[in-house]
Design goal:
The protein is an alpha/beta fold. Helices cover 27% and strands 15% of the residues. It folds into two domains: 197 residues, Vaccinia Virus protein VP39 (Rossmann fold); 152 residues, Alpha-Beta Complex (DNA Methylase, Chain A, domain 2), CATH 3.90.120.10.
Length: 364
């Protein structure tokens, strides 16, 4: 097992992908207390340092792990992306969160791991003409790292979701930078669909469900067999309660449909003036044989296609987690809103796993 730490770990999407592919996650950090509870619950063997990364030193980490600088195999992490997200209309480098990648670089300088992996949103490329991307590349080069960055499509690695992620990979051991080859798509494995991911989960009415419930059917796809390994029940499978107006709207939306299918008198006031080409995903009902749109920190139908393909309700935290490739044995802590946020902020586990395999092969 290679030695790894995860900074800005959140609920552990990156950690889980690396853990499944030959890495021992020795230490993790996040300032969010609910992420900490979820992470500790599901990764009990990992040292967890809570609190702001600005208050953590490389010396503290080395002391905790009884290591010297240069002995760590890999640091992974996703500095908060909200400052670069297209969903943040005030995004930019003026946002204090946009500079947190510098704290990551500070710890890389003190720890000198063999490999570094940084994940962020594609918007990092466009804010201030990609200044943050350039600063990360130049910062790692100054520390002696060969580094490259690429945009990866989650669906190309078996994720039932259209999600793009900017991935930086760097090493200081003289190896070429290799990004994972797509595994799914034309002339490869078939894409994983929404129905491949969630069709075996117990059916629910609007506002119904339980934090723990039994499986009611056998797995219906290879994806479901894999995701259920090590689990004997379903966690976090509760449908949020939609109000009467949203239930009225939903009755008009077919599978794969959206706000365009809702009679104009039922549309929110602001959307009655929208052009047919605008807001393509809003009030969308997922298509069974398609991909989900990007899982956000709120599965709010006003912002995307988050209605269940068959049932008149919003997808549950567990269904969102399935689309993010979290194994069913992983349980999310906190209020329903906190659970959705943890899932939405995560890196899809199978995308993380694809990157982990390339790093593992290089280190091996």
């Amino acid at each position: 097992m290679f030695k790894c730490i995860d900074l800005f770990c959140g609920a552990g999407g990156l950690s889980e992908g690396f853990r499944q592919n030959g890495f021992d996650i020795l230490l993790a950090n996040d300032f969010d207390s609910w992420c900490e509870e979820t992470y500790r619950r599901n990764h009990s063997d990992t040292h967890f340092i809570s609190g702001s990364i600005q208050e953590i030193s490389a010396a503290q980490i080395l002391s905790l792990l009884d290591m010297k600088a240069g002995e760590l195999d890999c640091i992974i992490g996703g500095p908060p992306c909200q400052a670069f997200s297209v969903y943040n209309h005030q995004r930019g480098l003026h946002d204090e969160r946009s500079g947190l990648f510098r704290e990551y670089l500070r710890l890389v300088e003190g720890l000198l791991p063999k490999y570094v992996v940084i994940e962020n949103v594609p918007g990092m490329n466009s804010v201030s003409d990609g200044a943050a991307v350039d600063e990360i590349r130049q910062g790692l080069k100054r520390l002696g790292y060969n580094v490259d960055v690429d945009m990866l499509k989650a669906e190309d690695y078996g994720v039932a979701q259209e999600r793009r992620r900017l991935i930086f990979i760097g090493n200081r051991i003289g190896k070429p930078i290799v990004f994972p080859e797509p595994t799914h798509g034309k002339d490869r494995l078939p894409y994983v669909t929404v129905w491949d991911a969630i069709s075996d989960l117990p059916p629910l009415e609007n506002g119904a469900g339980e934090e723990e419930c039994p499986y009611t059917v056998l797995p219906k796809s290879d994806y479901q067999k894999r995701i259920r390994e090590g689990a004997d029940k379903v966690f976090n499978h509760v449908a949020p309660s939609l109000g009467a107006i949203n239930l009225q709207r939903l009755k008009h939306i077919p599978e794969g449909g959206s706000w365009r299918d809702i009679p104009i008198e039922l549309l929110p006031a602001g959307m009655k003036r929208a052009r047919r080409s605008d807001h393509t995903k809003r009030y969308g009902r997922l298509r069974k044989e398609g991909f989900a749109s990007t899982i956000l920190t709120k599965c709010d139908p006003h912002w995307g296609a988050f209605f269940h393909p068959e049932q008149d309700r919003v997808i549950t935290v567990r269904e969102a987690a399935r689309i993010q490739c979290f194994p069913d044995k992983i349980r999310f802590n906190g209020s329903r809103g906190e659970q959705y946020k943890q899932v939405g902020n995560a890196v899809p586990v199978l995308l993380s796993a694809a990157v982990a395999k390339t790093v593992f092969n290089s280190l091996s």
